[in-house]
Write a structure and sequence with these properties.
five-stranded antiparallel sheet, four-stranded antiparallel sheet, Jelly Rolls, 4% helix, 9 strands, mainly beta, 47% strand, 1 helix, globular
């Protein structure tokens, strides 16, 4: 599956769901729930300068290889996944972060159910 920003819960036009998060202490992994057999997402911030989107992946789900025109960081919030960046493979677990360079092919796949935060900086 290839993820696009418009697939996120709280995508453009649903700013009220994001506004309710402002000024509060958040546990990011609790803001997105698992859905059997699929990927769920929730946009936390969406600005011209960048976005933060949370994802949950059911076991064996993933995102196919793709590129993005901006640098992005992925932080694993719960569970384990396998990540491919420019032909290199990494196994990642809770608390680990990787930077996806702009225009470099990358993909990921769930080893177990997992949750992640994607921060994309446009510029």
């Amino acid at each position: 599956m290839e993820w696009k920003p418009e697939m996120a819960e709280g995508a453009p036009g649903d700013g009220s769901r994001r506004d309710e998060l402002k000024g509060k202490v958040l546990v990011l992994r609790d803001l997105v729930t698992y859905q059997e057999g699929t990927i769920s997402s929730r946009m936390v911030i969406n600005r011209k300068a960048g976005s933060i989107t949370l994802f949950s992946f059911d076991e064996d789900e993933g995102l196919s290889e793709h590129t993005a025109p901006y640098d992005a960081t992925v932080t694993i919030l719960e569970g384990e996944c396998e990540v491919w960046v420019a032909g290199e493979t990494y196994q990642m677990k809770e608390g680990e972060t990787i930077v996806f360079p702009a225009n470099v092919p990358h993909a990921l796949s769930a080893i177990t159910r997992f949750k992640m935060s994607l921060t994309m900086i446009r510029g």
